[in-house]
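Notes for week 9. Today we move from apo structures to complexes. The key idea is that a small molecule is not decoration. When we ask for a structure prediction with pyridoxal-5'-phosphate present, the ligand SMILES becomes part of the input, just like the chain. The input block below holds both the sequence and the ligand string. Read it once before you look at the output, and try to guess where the molecule might sit.
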Amino acid sequence: MTRKHPGRFHIFIPGPTNIPERILNAMHISSEDQRNPEIPELTLPLYNDVKKVFKSETGQVFLFPGSGTGAWESAIINTMSPNEKVLIYRYGQFSHLWADMFERLGLDAQIIDREWGTGTPPEDIEKILKEDVNKEIKVVCVTQNETATGVTSHVEDVRAAIDAANHPALLFVDGVSSIASIDFKMEEWKVDCAISGSQKGFMLPSGMAIMCVSQKALEAHKSAKLKRCYYSWEDQIATNKDGYFPYTPQIPMLRALQESCNMLFEEGLENVFKRHHRIAEGVRKAVIEGWGLKLCAQDEYWHSDTVTAIVVPEDKDAKEVISTAFNKYHLSLGAGLTKVAGKVFRIGHLGDLNELQASAAINGAEMAMIDSGINVQPGSGVSAASEYWRKALDKDAKIQSIGNKEVA
Ligand SMILES: Cc1ncc(COP(=O)(O)O)c(C=O)c1O
């Protein structure tokens, strides 16, 4: 075997993300008896910590073996009955797949197509809900971060729209590529099912569906008639209350999740969000000011702090950039999916990373673009990003030290 990628391989897809050593170490344990009397010492505090990450006080956390897709399914089958109505906007591959799942599970999905590069429009939701005088729409969905296009939708604005329409619909939020990286306020925004996965902001391997549901969702669950088995909440509720599971849990992942929460709290959730914003702003400076290219996200309102989708010039192929980055520079970039395949490449900047790591992604993408015949100035991306980061890091450090003094 030849050693193909000496040195550190740079993974800059929007998940799976880097796994910190502390988390790798936490997983590196011998098998444990899942029914041993000490397991609740791990699980019961863990549920509370995960709730803190979701900023939920009254919700209930479920941890399923699976992934974000499993959490989508669990939310739907546990709260809905056949043919019930759901309102969902489709503006990227993941909102598309979620909408598709509603249809495949036998729901009446009102799917509204929006241009890729935009997100969920609160004003439209308010109008549609006001027109729904018989209150037939059971669920409104928001993909908080559309990973395919680097677009963040504003859940707080959607909540305001639902309230303005005085509508009782449940609010489901896909936070797979946002929760633990972009602020999420389950309680304040009255989110009913919040969905995530382990391999993005939580910095774990893939393999766990992480979700938090409201009391209102638990109430809806009591009359929901869709069939369910492995992803049912009732089996979890019956066993989780004592710290156990209805089937064999993935204990190393649970220990890793605890370490992930510890790391998030040690840094401070607000600092985690600020770091993601700062890194994302630097990447955007590289794209717009350095390279003179466009983002897929159409304006600032939609900018994502976890993934940047970059549009290559029309006569160039983003796939070539991605394969050159991988083969020549040991850098994984995210591909453009379906509608935007070949037109965009993505830099994922979420999880365990800092500015200098992000510099490597900008540098590698820049070299791969020049190799692919795209006219960008060597060094221009890193130069634009680093000028921003130098100042932004000082500014954030100053705010943090003032904050620390105030607390002291
Ligand atoms: C926004 C979003 N939703 C859902 C999913 C599906 O999650 P998973 O691949 O963990 O099943 C992804 C995956 O990248 C995603 O980015």
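The pocket of pyridoxal-5'-phosphate is lined by residues 15, 67-69, 94, 143, 145, 147, 174, 176-177, 197, 206 (CB under 6 Å).
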